[in-house]
Amino acid sequence: ENKQTLVVQMLLEAGNPTNLENSKGLTALHIASSHGCRGIVEMLLSADCDIDRQSKNGNTPLHMACLSNNVVIAEILIAKGADLNALNTRLQSPIHIAAEQGYSEICKLLLSAGANIEQREQGGKTPLYIAARGSFTAIVDMIIKTARLEYTPKKRTRPKTPEERRKWKCNPDLDVSIALQETDQNLEMILRKLAHKQLSPGEWKKLAHLWAFTDEQIKAIEHQYIGPSSYKQHGYRMLRIWVDSLGPDLDPIEELIDSLNTIEKKNLADAICKKLMRQKEKSEKKPDDKTCVVS
Hints:
Helix content: 40-55%
Structural class: mainly alpha
InterPro entries: Ankyrin_rpt (IPR002110), Ankyrin_rpt-contain_sf (IPR036770), DEATH-like_dom_sf (IPR011029), Death_dom (IPR000488)
Low-confidence stretches: 156-174, 176-181, 291-295
Domain Death: 203-276
Keywords: ANK repeat, Repeat
Distance between the termini: 81 Å
ANK repeats: 24-56, 57-89, 90-122
Number of domains: 2
Pfam families: Ank (PF00023), Ank_2 (PF12796), Death (PF00531)
């Protein structure tokens, strides 16, 4: 508790027990994890201190590190095999605590390590619900993206109609790789325009359901902004999350156009196609001579 690293080392070398508890059931590892004492944490772990020992309220050292937003300590504990999904007496896992406190870096670490995002605490709330309630949008988006890591576009269960076979309801010679020479910039412009100017209220939810967003995920996205125009920001956030969940072998523009046609927004799909064609034509128009002549 007083961060006396040398004293701890002497006590360990003298053979003092490593898992002694105080009146709250906290061991030295709990306390060192809470205070961010890296050297002491590493010494205690080397001395076989119980990494998952629970205090009287059920918190493990990893819970304590998350409560105090000690990312480095959390990394050490996870690397040493700490239980990511241990539950305290409130049925909270470490990620519940990190989401409740709004600690985005801790959440990112836990999500990357494979923390269970479906676990419900004693009130029935998931980490996603807790983060949304606290208006921690970065954490909400991280959790949804993690939940969608296994997402793949649904395969059609029926044959395509002749019209559906032409995904690109425009020039068949369109070369997307050429038309989108600045892919990220063009994609960003398309998504922003779609969300803020083209989709009507509720239409972003049609796309969300088509792309297998859950009702809880949609509600979490909606929680942050309110008002008559809030659907625009909701739609944009959903689109960005969707793009980030696509595999590297999928073209987001092609998938978007196909999806817009599926929800019967052919006019918007056509508008994107025309934009791509204009982009291609512009890129192909190169002056024969760029030399400046001064008279």
